[in-house]
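Form P-L/3: holo structure prediction, ligand F0G.
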Amino acid sequence: MPGTQVTNLRYRCIGCGNLGDSACPDFRCAHCGDLLEITYPQWREAKPSAADLKSAWSRRRLSQDPVDLSGVWRFRELLPALSVARDQVITLREGNTPLYELPQCARIAGLPRLLAKHQGMNPTGSFKDCGMTVAATFARSAGFRWVACASTGNTSASMAAYAARGGMRSLVLVPEGKISWSKLSQALDYGAVTCQLRTDFDGCLCLLQELVRRAPIYQLNSINPFRLEGQKTLALELLEQLDWEAPDHIIVPGGNLGNSSAIGKALLEMRELGLISRLPKLSVIQAEGANALVRTLREAGGKRLVSVHAETRATAVRIGNPASWKKAARVLEATGGACEQVSEVEIAQAKAEIGAEGVGCEPASAVTLAGLKKLVKQGFVKPDESVVLILTGNLLKDPDYTIEFHRGELFQGSISENAALNPLRHSPIILDASLEAVIRTLEQAEKC
Ligand code: F0G
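OUTPUT (holo model):
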């Protein structure tokens, strides 16, 4: 079976702390079965200088080298060392995502200013691309012909694209009937062997973990620590955009909990290397119907996972048994962040409010704004503090949800809930093809 040997890192088990130079195909510790993370032992002897890193990363923005045009590989000093020539990197120019002001959402949340880092502006429309460029590159350099993932849709879209770019075959396992058509269509177009399994995401992931022990297939779920290394660059790029002034709060959606773990790891490494002087509080928001981390922290003090049977229309985070719960719980503790849950109505409202700014995002991303409103009300986020929301997926990822929302068909909702949602609804208007009818509609709209 092909193997991944990278020279500048070691794998550390997050459970028993065991260190190793290689990883099993399921990326779990051979001794205790817990997840592995990547560490860079050489930083202890020769820490890269923060000033040198900042100037190298800034200089590369003018370069036309494909690895510098990638918003991930531009930060390569904090990533696993490439064992291949630079032109062997599988990249779609991921990263390089915008940081938007959301002035209306800021007002709604009760803050003077609110920023959103839009990872939905990545090549396949989600934050997954930042991890995928790294993990797919290492899969190919290790000699794998096949890559595979279980997914709620975005990972599969991203993996299929990077596998296709890299000349590898890909196998996708998704829960049947529970992912959006846009995401499914991406996997098909990029040529993945796509299996819709009669189970949920957790069932797909379980099956994949068995499969990689039997067949020479490289798994590209966020259990794979190379994925998380790539996703760290979201935080590096964000801090660079903020001129290395750390915000008070970063708020991220939580599903399988890989992204929050990656962002938290990046924040801790940035502080270790002196790139930032203080840590932002990293908070995770979950849908009420998929609130495993919320319950794990509240009911078990973060000591053991409280799994749930997940149900939410934010299908990207319809996950009840999050693999990286322990990593996420640790970074929340290390940064002093909060973990909150939001209802289906709160998610729909927040999504429409982000849409009304001309930005938009998919439902799972909107949990961040819905959660922020709660955290402000609870006094955890103070009105004078700076906040960045991480929008993880593009608005176009789930058009069915958006259309059902605007037509008032997404859910029943109580009278008071509908009173809050109705002003945000813009149902399509079917008219005869007459100029008068259009003008009348315009006049009516002018009065609203
Ligand atoms: N937002 C979006 C748009 C996602 O697609 C996901 C996860 C998350 C948030 C949660 O991130 O799992 O790192 O906590 N989607 C995965 C998938 C599970 O298969 O596409 P997480």
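COMMENT: The mean pLDDT is 96.
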